[in-house]
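In this section we walk through a basic example: taking a raw amino acid sequence and producing a predicted 3D structure, encoded as discrete structure tokens. The instruction is simple. Fold the sequence below.
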Amino acid sequence: MDQFFSISSQQQTAQTVISDCVKQLEAAPAQANFGFIYATDAMAAGFKDFLKQCKAATGIEHWVGTIGLGVMTAGQELYDLPAASIMLASFGDDEFAMVPSITSRSDLSSSIQWPRKFATNECWKTNRSAW
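The resulting token sequence is shown next.
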């Protein structure tokens, strides 16, 4: 897979965007193992479910992304309505490392060690249980 596989959708409702994206993901390359997911703020309430459905549709475990006022896709910017842009890639196992999600203050304190350790590939490979 030499390039990103890219899809996007902008619809009147968040659920329609989710359904459209999941349908488009049926064409995802089998070798894709990493996803980037960006959605407009109109998708915020259902973002967790959206991500869950994308994982189920592709079998891809590792995703990164965010919610913002708008998203960019091939040749256009999408604002003011529920919209999403997704890119899939194929990376070697030693080409990325996932950092644990931090959603509360207690997650932060349990994820940081002194002196500070950052998630590098080498650290991740040798000490996965710490993360």
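Looking at the output, two observations stand out. Helices lie at 14-24, 47-58, 105-111, 121-126. The chain has two domains: 5-94, 97-131. In the next section we compare this with other chains.
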